[in-house]
Write a structure and sequence with these properties.
1205 residues, 35% helix
């Protein structure tokens, strides 16, 4: 019907616009919070997570697709119904319905195949469960939480270990296929996908192999046979074992035997059967361009080595033979300046062959692809079209059935190409083809296996521009061209490899994969959260595909996606390195070749890293955070066991951490200023960092004016730090005589005899890791002793051999860091009120300065009182838990009450254990309370503060004594009458005839009223003035011996002269000193009166001594009678102008007193030792306090700072 056709056309439009095989998974990802675009965890796009066992077979329970999910995709082609596989196959002209498939693979291959075929089944048949999938699951894959196991309908457990035990075991695969009653086996890539024995064995049991027949696979899957076949078809080839490029040495050609194979004698001529034959072949080809040693049955970067000399060839031959056991080996000349281009072909059993454009896979390291892209824009269109047609002819001529890849080496300068090989299987990069053609490759394989002609497959028809995509009319694929490609796709392989160590494979757990598909970038992963990469797995565990209208758009989209991806776990990944590669000039301009990346790696041109000092600081922050976390866990564990010791708690707030990096040790001292604030000190640097932990375990650390994202993991060989997306390995400092492995795997062989000599930088052992043979090099020269034997299984960090160093003196010395780190100096801006809370919680802080800053911006009595009251109440809350009780009993009771949250117990004990610091804080706050009357012009205490002080004053234990007394004094002071009343009371005492001024000046009752006397210097009653001045002088100088005191009046000014001695020196040995206090009407009169004041003082001194030991001994006091506005600089200018006279009179200090209305006066001291400039330390200090406090001695020996109060 028209409606049916429109629905189907809409479905195919979706494929043409986008990502073919990924459409359904992308739609599912739109409605899931999972970070994996192809994850099936929530909501379940394909399967549920419910797993059960029946008869020893693992089954994944089916589910019903949600209405929400169903409403987001195009309606299936069957209208309201569901079409069966049988109906579809019959309509399409097929002959073999497939309803149950065994996935004979794991990892990426198994994951992608199930996703793609399920997607096709739903879009075409309306039932994603129309085809059942049985997976094979090794113990390692089960432990690694492999994604394909979750996707499958059921799985069968298979033996673990190397792939010959499981996924490459033909006998086992056939047995499972028969027992499970499957219709077909999908082999994927790698493992048994290129073993002719598998399709042959399955065919005998009536089971379809989704791929080529055994004879064709035999001849094409073998690289030697494929080269002979290509030469027979006159496809250009480069010099190799079967053709040395000379006039009389080949090329080898052969007619296929009736079984469809190359004659044995011809095949053997293309084989290097020993190291000696390989050396002879290499000599004939020549080392000028380099030599490739290749396993005929290798692939995916395995079983291939590059050498340029005979010695390396010997080792490479052994490595290749160990890597692909039993495979014939051949030698081939390296094609320099070559691009690796490939054509995606599909053949059917009806003799059709189609080329679905191709891919450029030139970005490789160790001959393993890193990026793949399509279409290949480097080749001239006509040339690439010719390459496609040649691939189609080759496919047709040999009767190839299924998907395959014809690979070429292409020289962009000469436009020449050479046959490389034909892979008789699907390749991991096939989604690139899906992205530019709209053809679902695994589903196309499935349909071809069902016997459906290529011209009847809807997606193929759409690609060839057929409007009737559900028609069945013939298409001449050799003559007709497909529609123009209007987009570009670049793919990036996500691998578990260490780019810092030449892309060595790594294995281990994966805690988290964070990736979100977008409209133009999608990807899938073979493992999920809490999964892993085991040592028998392929290193690739993810694949990202970016699509754009052109190559540049696709490149930029891929870069953005890679910058957002985050893989957390024990493995290393290449993600950061890939970003750097994509941003190189060569990649942008597309001038690379197959040797480009290996050259960059060898020369270490691309360095992915961070500044050393930033790295070191971040590592220290990570270690500090981990220290606190681990120590808290230890204390919590001890408390949970009933232990009551809290001795370990202080070690959470002050401790040392050491970081080693690039032969330097950095000993950091760490102090916690708050739950999330760390102060790190090393060398001359002090760094404050605010550190918070995200839900996924990363640290966000703010320091040096920037915020950095930090994740770390301790490994056997050191700390792996991920800093702002860049992975950095910070090795532990090992003994150079210990040779350790940095990979997990198996020892293959040692390259020197036990006791033999090895040179620094020379390989000493080969380890098999993730199906690759990896040489490990010695770090120093010396005599080697093997600690393990070949075949031993090893983990990263294990000791492989010991080294008797040839020259111990040449070993690098580890230096301890001195100096300053290159980290921007910037203290964290912390609200002082927050700091007060932190100090009360038991953290470190600058008490006095913090309290002063907290009150600087407090402008009301209520706010100030609340701050103090809240602080006291928090102090009391903790201390009342412990006051008068045994600490062990308190801890035991706390633990019982907080069994579900032992962090509370730690916090309360931490606060109490820092009682001394908390006492200092409360004392500093109480000193602020003493200033409230002046600051806020009120002696009344708000009720909340009075209540807090009252409770504080009632604390009985010795540890609280000073606080209790101070609180009680403040409460008492608050009861003192207002200023005016106290002045009036003092005045009445002064005018009382019975008052003895000498006794009054020494009375303790005058302590609170000394400064009140200055308010009477301007009293209307001269008798009061005189009395106030005399008592004031006698009180201020009560620590001295006053032998003479006389008051006089001159020119309307009251003057007091006295002679005094220091009382700590015997009278007979003490110097007589002269003092004078002059009361002037106001500060305005000082400038005009200063000279007269000095003349008067000179007259008073007369011929008395002015100096002692060369130092001035006399004191001059000037008091203003009125409360003037004060400009200390102006006063200083007036006084310094008279410096000569002052020196002549032996004036040690000039003290200026200015009344402050209804409050204590201001005091300013100008000292002779500073040229009569004001001493800021003495500001508002009574004139003789500096002597009593010995400030002169303090300032001579210490850097004294006046704290605002």
């Amino acid at each position: 019907s028209i409606t049916k056709q429109l629905v189907k056309t809409s479905t195919m439009t979706m494929f043409r616009r986008g990502y073919g095989a990924a459409v359904l998974a992308l739609l599912a990802a739109t409605f899931t919070s999972s970070t994996n675009a192809f994850s099936t965890k929530s909501p379940a796009a394909f399967v549920s997570n419910s797993i059960s066992k029946q008869n020893g077979i693992q089954h994944v329970e089916p589910f019903s697709t949600s209405a929400l999910f169903m409403s987001t995709i195009d309606s299936p082609a069957v209208g309201a119904g569901v079409k069966t596989v049988e109906q579809y196959v019959k309509e399409r002209g097929g002959n073999f319905p497939i309803k149950k498939v065994l996935i004979a693979n794991n990892g990426m291959a198994a994951t992608k195949s199930i996703l793609s075929m399920r997607q096709w089944a739903y879009m075409e048949l309306g039932d994603e469960r129309a085809i059942q999938f049985v997976a094979m699951a090794s113990p390692e894959d089960l432990k690694a939480n492999a994604e394909f196991i979750r996707l499958a309908d059921s799985f069968v457990e298979v033996p673990g270990g190397v792939n010959r035990n499981n996924y490459a075991n033909v006998e086992l695969i056939t047995k499972i296929a028969v027992e499970q009653g499957v219709d077909a086996v999908w082999p994927g890539w790698g493992h048994a996908s290129e073993k002719p024995e598998l399709p042959e064995s399955l065919s005998k049991n009536g089971i379809k192999f989704i791929g080529p027949t055994a004879p064709v696979m035999s001849v094409l899957g073998d690289k030697i046979a494929a080269n002979i076949l290509a030469q027979t078809a006159k496809v250009p080839s480069i010099p190799w074992t079967g053709s040395f490029g000379g006039p009389d040495d080949g090329p080898l050609v052969a007619d296929l035997t009736p079984e469809g194979t190359i004659p044995k004698e011809t095949f053997e001529k293309g084989t290097a059967r020993s190291v000696e034959e390989a050396i002879e072949t290499a000599r004939r080809i020549g080392y000028e361009n380099g030599i490739m040693v290749k396993a005929s049955e290798g692939g995916g970067g395995k079983g291939i080595r590059f050498v340029d000399n005979e010695e390396d060839l010997k080792n490479a031959y052994i490595q290749v033979s160990n890597e692909v056991v039993g495979s014939p080996i051949f030698i081939m000349q390296l094609c320099k300046n070559a691009r690796h281009l490939e054509v995606q072909i599909v053949g059917d059993e009806h003799g059709n062959a189609v080329a679905l454009n191709g891919r450029d896979c030139s970005t490789q390291r160790r001959f393993q692809k890193i990026f793949e892209e399509g279409p290949p824009t480097i080749a001239k269109p006509d040339t690439f079209k010719f390459m496609q047609k040649a691939a189609q002819r080759l496919t047709q001529n040999i009767g190839y059935v299924g998907a395959g890849t014809v690979e070429y080496l292409y020289n962009a300068d000469t436009d020449a190409f050479f046959f490389l090989e034909l892979n008789p299987r699907l390749q991991v990069e096939h989604p690139v083809t899906e992205g530019i053609t709209g053809v679902n490759m695994p589903a196309t394989q499935l349909q071809v296996a069902m016997g459906i002609p290529l011209n009847a497959i809807p997606q193929i028809r759409a690609f060839y521009g057929r409007e009737d995509i559900y028609g069945t009319d013939k298409i001449d694929f050799m003559e007709e061209d497909y529609k123009p490609i209007d987009s570009h796709v670049i793919a990036a392989r996500i691998t578990a490899e260490n780019p810092d160590e030449g892309f060595k494979p790594t294995s281990g757990t994966i805690e988290r994969i964070k990736f979100q598909s977008t409209s133009n970038v999608w990807g899938y992963f073979s493992v999920g959260a809490n999964g892993g990469i085991h040592e028998y797995a392929d290193s690739q565990f993810g694949h990202l595909f970016a699509k754009g209208a052109n190559r540049e758009q696709a490149r930029k989209a891929l870069i953005l996606a890679l910058k957002e991806i985050e893989v957390r776990g024990e493995i290393r990944t290449t993600v950061e390195y890939l970003v750097e590669l994509l941003e190189t000039k060569e990649f942008i301009e597309n001038t690379i070749d197959t040797s480009w990346l290996d050259g960059l790696i060898k020369e270490k041109i691309i360095q992915v890293g961070q500044p050393d000092d930033l790295t070191v600081t971040s590592a220290a922050i990570f270690r500090a955070f981990q220290h606190v976390k681990e120590r808290a866990a230890e204390v919590s564990e001890a408390l949970a066991k009933g232990q009551v010791s809290t001795a370990a708690i202080p070690g959470m707030n002050a401790f040392n951490v050491e970081v080693a990096y690039k032969d330097t040790k950095y000993p950091f001292h760490v102090v916690r200023l708050a739950e999330d604030i760390y102060r790190l000190s090393v060398g001359d640097s002090v760094i404050e960092a605010r550190v918070t932990e995200t839900a996924e375990g990363a640290l966000l650390a703010t320091f040096g004016g920037e915020t950095h994202r930090i994740f770390g993991m301790d490994e056997p060989l050191g700390l792996r730090l991920v800093l702002d997306g860049v992975t950095i390995l910070m090795p532990s400092i090992f003994d150079p005589s210990e040779l350790r492995t940095d990979v997990t795997g198996k020892v293959v062989r040692f390259l020197q005899d036990n006791g033999g000599e090895v040179k620094a930088g020379q390989p000493y052992v080969e380890v098999e890791a993730m199906k690759m043979i990896m040489p490990i090099k010695a770090s120093e020269s010396g005599k080697i002793t093997h600690n393990l034997s070949p075949g031993s299984v090893v983990s990263a960090g294990d000791l492989l051999a010991s080294l008797e160093l040839k020259d111990p003196s040449k070993v690098k010395k580890i230096e301890t860091f001195t100096g300053a780190l290159d980290i921007a100096a910037s203290s964290l801006e912390i609200d002082p009120k927050e700091t007060i809370k932190n100090i009360l919680a038991g953290f470190t802080g600058e008490t006095e300065a913090t309290v002063a800053r907290a009150f600087e911006n407090t402008h009301s009595l209520e706010a100030a009182a609340s701050l103090v009251a809240e602080s006291i109440n928090e102090y009391l809350r903790v201390e009342k838990l412990f006051a008068g009780r045994l600490k062990d009993d308190v801890v035991r009771e706390m633990t019982k009450a907080n069994v579900g949250n032992l962090a509370v117990v730690i916090a309360e004990n931490q606060a109490h254990m820092h009682l001394k610091e908390r006492n200092y804080l409360i004392q500093a706050m109480l000193r602020q309370v003493e200033t409230f009357a002046d600051r806020f012009k009120s002696t009344d205490l708000p009720a909340n503060l009075e209540a807090a002080l009252t409770e504080l004053s009632h604390l009985k234990e010795k540890a609280y004594g000073e606080l209790a007394i101070a609180a009680d004094n403040i409460l008492r002071q608050s009861k003192i009458p207002p200023f005016a009343d106290r002045v009036a009371e003092l005045k009445s005492i002064l005018v009382d005839p019975a008052t003895d001024f000498v006794s009054l000046s020494k009375s303790s009752t005058l302590s609170a009223g000394v400064d009140l006397l200055t308010a009477l210097f301007n009293d209307k009653d001269d008798a009061v003035k005189r009395a106030a001045i005399e008592v004031y002088v006698r009180r201020v100088y009560r620590a001295h011996r006053i032998s003479r005191l006389a008051l006089s009046e001159s020119g309307g000014k009251f003057v007091c002269d006295w002679t005094f001695q220091f009382s700590d020196v015997e009278a007979k040995n003490s110097v007589d000193r002269q003092g004078q206090l002059v009361v002037i009407p106001s500060l305005d009169a000082l400038k005009t009166d200063m000279s007269k004041i000095l003349d008067g003082f000179a007259a008073s001194i007369g011929d008395k001594p002015k100096t002692a030991g060369g130092a001035p001994i006399n004191m001059l006091h000037i008091a203003s009678a009125t409360a003037d506005s004060v400009n200390p600089s102006a006063i200083e200018s007036i006084i310094t102008a008279e410096e000569a006279k002052l020196n002549m009179l032996g004036v040690r200090t000039v003290n200026v007193l200015v009344p402050h209305e209804k409050s204590d006066p201001y005091y300013y001291s100008f000292t002779q030792c500073d040229g009569y400039r004001e001493d800021p330390l003495r500001r508002n200090m009574r004139p003789t306090f500096h002597h009593l406090l010995e400030l002169s001695r303090l300032t001579d020996n210490f850097d004294v700072e006046r704290i605002p109060a």
